[in-house]
Design a protein that fits this description.
- The complex is a heterodimer of chains A (311) and B (400).
- Chain A has ten helices and 20 strands.
- Chain A is of the alpha/beta class and 311 residues long.
- With 400 residues, chain B is α/β, with parallel strands linked by helices.
- In chain B, strand 7, helix 7 and strand 8 form a beta-alpha-beta unit.
- Helix content of chain B is 29%, strand content 23%.
- In chain B, the strands form four sheets. In chain B, strands 3, 6, 7, 8, 11, 12, 13, 16, 17, 18 and 19 form an eleven-stranded mixed sheet that branches. A four-stranded antiparallel sheet of chain B has the order 1-2-9-10.
- Chain B is built from 14 helices and 19 strands.
- The chains are: A alpha/beta (311), B alpha/beta (400).
């Protein structure tokens, strides 16, 4: 088994299931065969044919709890209609990629949480509501069906992480704006722009308004030079990985509604690709255009998550 | 697929007319001409980038063959103001006289034939935003369809369209036109989730307020299907653009993601409306303007959920020049506001501004929620879309 395969297997999030073996039909009907269960239930689930990992309540509680992903009203901060406030944790996974995380999500959020965890290859255990088992099963099956493609992230600039809450919130807003960055311990010559909050170029008082701060970085990058752009939604956050010849775009829709015709632009020499859309499977890219140093395409319809492989 | 994109970069009218020696200078008047006409075109405008692979027609539909010419047909009998019901025979007669006067044709059919052939696929851009009190009149839309089918345009080649399906459903034009006429919208509702009804290769790009989605794309129906468009707006006040008529109905009613142009008291409609209307192919294909002024809205527009601000101009205007008609529209709305003692649509006093407070605006006609931009009509003139100088607009008035 290659390192890439190992990495992917480790990245598949695990459902923390505390209901007894009697709930087996619910899980089986959703196609779920892998679980995290309390230690005293491990044997029973294994005998029932499940692939299980022992997780105690203490283990679950010891993990860093992530907020429920989605959109939320923030009067005076975000527009409820055009650009709602997004609760997303991608930047947390980036900040501590070796971290162990957990979600406890209400009904209707399991698929989105699974998508977010998978997109960033986070080590995640999720506690979900029973009503969400079918949606979770469908998303897990979708994640299992994705072609294995382990590529390094594409970044347009670096952010020097001083560990402060101000930098954390800046990273949150930078990620929410689909500005692709890499977290560094110190400014790196690999980046055209290194954002180090607290320096003369990026004073801490500027970062106190993280949304305006993100706009400043965006202006410095220029939209034309950004490796990835999203059109047709203000509630999709993307992650881009590439080795220069192939690329994978993860698209996470936090809005809770299906989006038709989401438009994506990726800089590079890609000529074609395939879309894998949770809920509808493999699909051709629509309205594809290769021009001006990049590829553009639309997706027919997507729910919580889609993956696009470019070549 | 590689695109042969036709890209123009507009920084401002001044910069565009000077620098965009490309095609703007050829289509539009020079800055010197605009200044001579008394038009003050602002230069503090955001960069707007047009992407379209469509070329203009030899004579683009806007301003078309009759720049600066407006036929205004009035009738006291066109609407019963106690029931808000239009008088169908009177409206039809107003339409017939207006079209004949505009074209100089001796018969109504010949007047319509001036613009349309049986092979055309015709879009009728209605305005549903003022439902239930002030929308493109059923009587005008029905008469338009009647004239088109009379010329031999098949019903399957006639499309009544708007951006939002929920608005089209409310208005239900289908009940007023022959079966087979298409009713089409680009999105189910104004939720910013349906993009497939828009052409992703024909758009206006601008970063106005830091939004991530910086594109406003033209409806696919317009780029891929229609050969001609008839624009049927209403006379309405508008909280951002001052008033909404021909230009805004065709522009904001045919492109995606336009609500982003106003935010927190500021609007970019000044340059955005005209620039959208100037894009190909919508500019070339919009060949006829029929301004429905049977009813109007003098405050709180573009919506008309209440009759509180409804009024009755009792007129229909005909032309091919959207700028000339809209220049008259500004005065109609403003005069009605003056008659009610309300502030002008040109008011830029910060004291009148209650940002985003639509409740206060709806309650008090002396409240603005945005500093309005009625100067968008002048800006559209600077793009060559028509004549905004009142002294140069020739209005022929008829009474039925």
């Amino acid at each position: 088994m290659t390192a890439a395969v190992l990495a992917l297997v480790a990245a598949v999030p695990c459902l923390y299931w505390t209901q007894g073996i009697d709930s087996r039909p619910t899980l089986e009907s959703a196609g779920i065969k892998r679980l995290c269960v309390p230690p005293d239930q491990v044997e029973a689930w294994r005998k029932a044919g499940f692939n299980v990992t022992a997780i105690s309540d203490a283990d679950f509680s010891a993990r860093e709890a992530l907020p429920v992903p989605g959109t939320t009203p923030r009067p005076g901060v975000a527009s409820p209609t055009r650009a709602p406030w997004i609760v997303a944790s991608g930047w947390r996974f980036m900040r501590a990629p070796a971290g162990k995380y957990s979600y406890a999500v209400p009904t209707g959020k399991a698929a989105l949480a699974l998508a977010e965890a998978a997109a960033y290859a986070g080590d995640v255990v999720l506690k979900i509501e029973a009503a969400d088992v079918p949606a979770a099963g469908a998303m897990l099956a979708f994640l299992d069906s994705l072609p294995i493609l382990d590529l390094p992230p594409v970044v347009d600039f670096g952010v020097v992480d001083d560990g402060s809450p101000v930098t954390a919130e800046a990273m949150n807003l930078l990620a929410r704006r689909n500005l692709l960055f890499e977290i560094e311990k110190a400014p790196s010559p690999r980046h055209r722009i290194n954002v180090a909050i607290g320096t003369a170029a990026y004073p801490a008082q500027e970062a106190a308004d993280p949304s305006a701060f993100a706009q400043k970085i965006r202006a410095q990058l220029t939209d034309e030079q950004r490796s990835l752009r999203i059109y047709g939604s203000e509630v999709v956050i993307a992650r881009l990985t590439s080795d220069g010849k192939r690329a994978r775009v993860h698209l996470i829709n936090y809005g809770g509604r299906e989006i038709e015709g989401l438009r994506v632009r990726v800089r590079g020499s890609y000529q074609s690709g395939d879309a894998f859309i949770a809920g509808s499977g493999k699909a051709a890219l629509q309205d594809q255009v290769v021009a001006d140093g990049g590829i553009e395409f639309s997706l027919p319809k997507m729910g919580a998550y889609a993956v696009v492989d470019l070549r | 697929m590689h695109r042969r994109a036709f890209v123009r970069l507009l920084a401002a009218a001044a910069a565009s007319a000077k620098a965009a020696g490309l095609d703007l200078a050829a289509k539009g008047p020079s800055i010197r001409e605009l200044e001579r006409d008394g038009l003050q075109i602002r230069t503090d405008l955001p960069p707007l980038k047009i992407v379209s692979r469509y070329s203009p027609a030899a004579t683009p539909g806007m301003p078309g063959p009759f720049p600066g010419r407006v036929i205004r047909v009035k009738s006291d009998k066109c609407v019963d103001t106690t029931t808000n019901t239009a008088n169908d025979p009177v409206v039809r007669e107003m339409m017939a006289q207006g079209m004949r006067a505009l074209t100089g044709a001796t018969t109504t059919a010949d007047a319509w034939r001036r613009f349309f052939a049986p092979s055309d696929v015709v879009g009728i851009k209605v305005n549903c935003g003022g439902y239930p009190n002030c929308i493109s009149a059923y009587e005008i839309v029905a008469e338009t369809v009647r004239q088109l089918t009379g010329l031999g345009v098949p019903v399957s080649q006639i499309y009544i369209y708007e951006r939002f399906q929920n608005q089209m459903d409310e208005c239900n034009y289908a009940a007023h036109v022959p079966e087979g006429v298409q009713s089409v919208a680009a999105e189910r509702a104004n939720r910013n989730t349906d993009n497939s009804g828009y052409d992703p290769e024909t758009y206006l790009e601008a970063n106005l307020f830091g939004e991530e989605d910086t594109r406003s794309s033209m409806m696919r129906l317009v780029t891929k299907r229609l050969t001609k468009i008839i624009n049927i707006p209403n006379i309405k006040d508008h909280g951002a653009s001052g008033a909404t008529g021909c230009l805004k109905n065709i522009a904001y009613g045919s492109f995606s993601n336009v609500a982003r142009t106003h935010q927190r008291g500021k609007t970019h409609t000044y340059s955005f409306i005209g620039t959208l209307a100037s894009m190909e192919p919508i500019r070339s294909r919009t060949v006829l303007q029929i301004m429905d002024g049977i009813r109007g809205v003098w405050h709180g527009g573009p919506f008309a959920r209440t009759t509180k601000y409804l009024f009755y101009p009792k007129q229909i205007m005909f032309g091919t020049d959207p700028v000339a008609i809209d220049r008259l529209l500004l005065d109609i709305v403003d005069n009605e506001r003056k008659a009610h003692g309300a502030i002008s649509i040109w008011d830029r006093n910060p004291n009148s501004l209650k940002m985003d407070d639509t409740r206060a605006r709806d309650a008090d006609p002396n409240v603005n929620i945005i500093i309005r931009e009625p100067g968008h009509v002048d800006y559209a003139a600077s793009l060559g879309l028509g004549v905004a100088d009142l002294a140069k607009i020739k209005v022929q008035e008829l009474t039925v």
